[in-house]
Hints:
By secondary structure, this protein is α+β, with helices and mostly antiparallel strands. It has helices at about 5-30, 65-80, 80-85, 95-100, 125-140, 145-150, 155-170, 195-200, 215-230; strands at about 35-40, 45-50, 55-60, 110-115, 210, 210-215.
Amino acid sequence: MTTGLGSHFVAVLESLGMASRLRQGRLAARAGQVLSMSLSTSVVVAQVQDGSRTHRCRIGIKAFSKAEWTAVEKALVSQALYTARLLAGEVPYEMFADLGLRLFPDDMRELAMDCTCDTWDMPCLHLAAVCHLLAEMFDQDPFQALAWRGRGREELLSRLGDLRRVAQEPQPVKGFWRMQGPPATSAGPAAGARPDAVLDELAPLPLQLRGERVVDLLRPAYQAMARGVR
Length: 230
Ligand SMILES: [Zn+2]
């Protein structure tokens, strides 16, 4: 199921009592009243025109803590599918839920909104118009919502790459037996070579059977096989 992140954001704002304001804001946004909008860590700043005046709006959200971002990054690296979904424009909501995190707040107190207009009934029309455009932005690129929470796309992808490299570094193998000397060839004995020469290359095998070295027990078998081949 893919639900646009913007729709999710709008649904959250509506549940917080902004439904009628958002409808007015959508009309203002469609009329082109939002002159500019920029999103950086934790805050969105926008210029919104209203008649002959231009107002400055700010919408802040609490960034995830360093520990919360570390948990998000580890989850993204452990499940490659989560990162793939993000890159495809889909947010792995269940991943955030599993970590006890919400991308969007469920309480207006977690959002800090202010505007230079003198509307007493907040959020004002200008902020609602910015929220509408913000939702459209999240629909197009969910990384913007992550940036709002404190990690820009480039920084996040770079950190994921670092974590993945560390995870893939080969670990030293302990107790791995390595053969000393020249490697035994898997090909048959070369013409003119002793058919049992490969046994000497494997020596010394510290194995004995009934008091005899295994190498010596195998030697007649190799010589017999070589006679059979010829
Ligand atoms: Zn305003």
